[in-house]
Each structure stands twice: as C-alpha cells, then as structure tokens.
Request: fold
Amino acid sequence: MKPQEIIERFVDLAREASEDRIDSTGQAGLYRLERALSRSTRPSRAFGYRVGGAALAAALGLTALVLVQFPRDRALTFEVTPSCVRDGGYVVSKAADGQVRFSDHSDVGMDRGTRLRVSSVEVHGAHLMLEAGTLHASIRPRPKARWSIDAGPYVVHVTGTEFDLTWKVELQTLDLRLRSGSVTVEGPLAGGDVHMIAGDHLVANAGDGSLSIVDERHATPSQDVPSASPKVDTAPSGAATMTASAPAGGARSASAAAMAHSSGVAWATRVARGSFQAVIDDAQRQGIDRVLTEASQADLAALADAARYAHSQDLARRALGAQRARFPGSVLARDAAFFLGGLAESGGDDAGSVEWYETYLRESPDGAYASQALGRKMMLVEPIRGTDAARTAAAEYLRRFGDGPYAPNARKLLQTQ
Amino acid sequence: MKDVARKQRPNDSLSDQSGRVIPFPEAGASGLDDAAVVRILRAGDARAPRVVWNRLAPMVRGMLLRSFGPEHDIDDLIQEVFLTLFNRIETLREPQALRAFVITITAHTIRREVRRKIASRWLHLGTTQGALARDADLDSREALVRLYRILDRLGAEERTAFALRFFEGLEIVEIASALGISPATTKRRIAHAWTRIVTHAQRDGALVEYLSSYRPEGAP
Reply:
C-alpha cells in the first residue's frame, strides 16, 4: 500500500467519524459556556488524571505536575505569531496582526513592520524594547508584576494595563494611549516622570522636548506640565492644538487632536479597535472631499486603513492618493505607495501593482514593507515583463531577504530553466 | 470536504503569503456576518454566546475531534476555545477574520493539549490505553483508534501541523500563521509527521489490510 493511500484513508476515516455538527449533547456546552461567562471565570479543566495508588506516588505526581504545568517560579515564556522571532528575542511583525503572547496571558500585538525585542523575561514580567512601530499591549495585572518597555530614550513602566504605544524613530516621537490601568513614563520629559491613567494620550517628542497629554475620556484638554519649552503638542498628526490654563499642581499641555471626530475618539484608535465602518461614516458625515483635503496626516492614514479593511477600495485609494499628494516625502506617504500596490493587485491590475511596488522600493529601499514589496513584485512581474525580470527580482530578493517569506518562491524561480 | 489541498504532499511549494479565511461550512441560522458577530461580542451583547456557539462550535468540535480521535473527551477543550475567544476578542483587528481567529485559537488549544498528554504520559498520570482488538477483528473504529495511537507518538508541533494540513485542509502558510512558526518549519514538521505515521502504520499488518480494503462512504 502506498504511503499516500495510507494517509488519505486515515484522513477519510477521521473525517467520517467527525462531522462538523453539534448534537443535543453538544448544545449542553452552550449552557456551560453561558454559565462560565456569567461567572466571568474560566472553568476548571477536567484533566482526567487519576491519582490513585500510594500516597507517595500521588504526591510525587502532583509535584511533578505542578512543575510541568504551573511553573510559578519560572520565568515567563512567550510565543510569537504570525511574525518571526530571531536570535535574542528580536521580533519583526510581517503581518498586520503579529502578536507576542506570554505565558501569563499578557500579549503584545504589533502593527505590520513593527520591530520589537524581548530583551529579557522574568518571573513577574518582561523587558521589551520597541525599536520602531506600533504595539498594542495587554498586560495581565498580577501581584508584583514588573514590565517595562523601552522606546527610544523613554521607558514605560507597567504593572497591569492595556495601551497602544508607537515609537517613530525618524520623528523621535513617542505616542502612548492608555486604555486601562496606569503606567509611568520615564525619559526626557518636561517636569520629570509622568504618571498616566486610563484615557490619557501622551505624545512626546525627544527632539524638541515637547510633550502633550490629552484626557480622551472626555475629549477635553487637560492640564499643562511645567516645561522648559513653551511649545506644546508636536504630535506628528499635525492635528489642531490648543492650550489650557494650568490648575495648581497639575500642569499638562493639551491637544485637541481627537476633537475633530464626532465620537471624541481619534480615528487611529477606532481603527485599532476594529471600528472601520465608524471611521468611514464619520468621514462621510464631514464630507469625503473635505476630509481628503483638510484632515491631518494621521487621520488620512487611519481613514485609508479603515477603508482598506472595510473593502472600500475606492475610498482607500483616494485617501492614500491624498496622503501622497499632500505630504510628499513623509514616511506615511511613502508607505502609501505600498498599499496602493496592494489595492491594485487585489483589483487585478498587476502591471499597476508592480509599478507601485517599484515606487515604494525606490522611495523606501529599506522601508518596513521592502521585503513584502519586493516579494510581491517578484511574484507578479513574470507575465508582465518576462522570466528574466522575475529572475532578477528573485535574485535581489534572496540577496536582501534570504530567509524571508518569499525565499522559497525566489529559489524556485531561479532554478527554473 | 474533499479539497485538493489536503491531498497534496507536504513539500508543496509556497505560493502566496497572504492569509485567508478558511471556508468552513456555515452553521447556525443567524443572518449576521462575521463582522457583526464580532461587534456583538465586543459589546457584551447577551446574545453573543449563543450566536457565536451556533456559528462556530461545529467547526471547533470537528477540528478537535479529528485531531484527537474518538477516545478523547473534547468537551473541556471546546469550552477552552470559546472562553479564550471571549477573553481575546478585543485583540482581533479585522472582524471579517473571525473564523481564522478561532482556527488559530483552536490550533493553540490542540497543541497545548497534545503537550499536556505527552507530559501526563511522562508522569504516568494519564489513563492507561486499553488493549487493542485482535488483529483479525479490525473494524473502522478500531482502525481509527490504532491510527490515533500512532498520532500519539508525534510531538505537539508535528501532530498539530499534520491535523491542520490533512484533516482541515489548511494551506502551509495558514498553518504557519496559526502556530506562529515559519512556513519552512511547518513543512518540515508535516513531512516528519507524514513519514512517522506511514512507517508505524506499515508495521501493523492488520491495519494496512483494513485500510487497503476500506472505501469511504459514498465512494464508487
């Protein structure tokens, strides 16, 4: 019997024995789930262990079990998906939903192209270094929890909380939105360390020492931090800013970045929460033409993202086009070329797609999406420009990204006579 | 679901890196699309458990059943998958990818359970395996039990990757994404699992004989 037949019949047997349906017994699981959710606790797993026999054997077994399954005194472990992790805990998110999951159920989501290093892991936390990009952290509150994230010259100290953190190397800008819990930010900040609570949105620029904190819970400006520099809010979004007078002891600067939006929540935040249609609706209420000509760079990027995720390709194309036309040379405008390539590709315009990928590679040869752009170009270029062009792209891909996701295809192309 | 993908050998070339949602059979009478389901999940809507269960429990149950075979109690695992879904729903960026998200959670649950089984075997705390039927008396259930015992010899990564590839028909990139490993590693795991399963199966004469004469239901 051939190996292939063994596997095929095994699969057929397994499939015959397990239809994708839930019978009345299975429906009992729904009630169990509802009860568990109403208690807001995880049900204890029936591990099925039978600790019979001698008491000594049971004790030994349980001890071993604890060591295997509940390593309370061991350092945390983590796994990365679907990004890749390299030596020294260096993680590069190649997908839009890259995630680092820790064994204590804390997790750190990463936007595409984000570069993160898990510098060390300990029993009660971990030390991360955000080299560039945006992460979305959900740190599980635990006694003695000790987490910190370096971002440029800043250090964010965390106990248990949820937040979105962006570090833009080119602009030397830290952007931190705290969704729950509290954190302390240490670094070149006016007035020393800053303690943030849920709803605070901090933008700090290490280049000029400026700082702003907005309380987004109420979408109103908060107080002003005493600063050596009178300048406030140099957030890269370029959003409108305003300054509030400083109540005693308080002293924070203020920004009205979120006030242009009907919900009081910035579009980027809403995109991060998955409210794509809400962002599009908001833009439509304000008038798409007006938004495309007047919105900040960050809002244009958020609108383009929302439109792409909601499959409104025309709107995404227009927003990305506006990004390139209004903010030429900026990182987001250069990145827009890559996304326009993707839109062209999904619209069946392979030639247009290749041109956009080449534009991106020309403008951002070492950009966050360079590997993807070159890989996609390699996959598309053969029917358009012939085998030689594809092989050239494949050779370049292997030279630059030898362990990248398109490397197998590149090797295959080069082996083709 | 007799798709082409599951019939491919483990060294299939990697053609595309883009993620896809696997078209599992639709379940449940709800007219809501996945994005709407995610919205009610996030909103804490009281209907959410029922809607999500009716829509996804058949798929989750099928995946777990195929991964662990008829001898394994999967009810707790189904609960675990759904509780994880409710706990993690805020981390889902693209609501349209709800099914892919659940597949990923299920894949992690499978891998974790395989690890637990291996650990419990090592600790001799698991249930002892019952005696196998006499060689000449193989029926489909007994054959299946023998085949799953061969699967039990595999490591967690290999077994999970094999199950996702051949039982569920997922593409290499999708498995890699679900397990958080590279496509190359995924291929190696599957190839290794393939070789080991075939080798062990071929040593069992009665099993090979049964499989040789076996025809799936509906086959000509």
